[in-house]
């Protein structure tokens, strides 16, 4: 369609645009250099069907946080049912659904910065269950996000039971890219075995941060974009460029983080 072509053209023109980095003290020179070297993961999602969806060796870090971000915020995603999503978006906060007894701050919840991983988890909002029928984008404080992760325990390699009562749990799962040829249970996505994506589990006191307006700056319903994107993927022929343009309003690229956080999250691990 003309709309999809216009979106694709606008998105391609910004594909290599980079958000301005924060001051040099906020991240290591090594992390910045690595971020500049790496190509956006979405580029590989948009490869035409006859070409590889797997990044060339050396072009992606094994463990990196890829996100839409700017100097102040980082975007993460969650999926909810209609009632919670409506209340959260209307109030720009989870306080409203909590007060309506729809959302519980005592229940463990997960946030993820990868849009394609979110799409896989919720089935693009239409291919799984009604409790994942809506996707919300949370633009959270970048400094708060880093502080939250500094207290995380990694699930991989931890002793049994170590993660059970921790406020923040990090899993490094295989990243996913869009793939219109994927089998039904992969819901138009494909696993990348040589690239990891961060999944962040919150429980107890860390869930309370989602009620803090200084942490959650904006709550946006991005469900229409996810549904339009899977529509482009399921079209005949599939339109990967249109899907990418719809899914990513800005490029999802590697987030430079302080050296201490890289160490805490074991981000410089070479592989598993």
Automatic annotation (TrEMBL):
Pfam families associated with the record: DUF4291
Residue ranges of the region described as Disordered: 1-27
Biased composition (Polar residues): 1-11
Annotated InterPro entries: DUF4291
Protein name: DUF4291 domain-containing protein
Organism for this UniProt entry: Alexandrium monilatum
Taxonomic lineage of the native organism: Eukaryota, Sar, Alveolata, Dinophyceae, Gonyaulacales
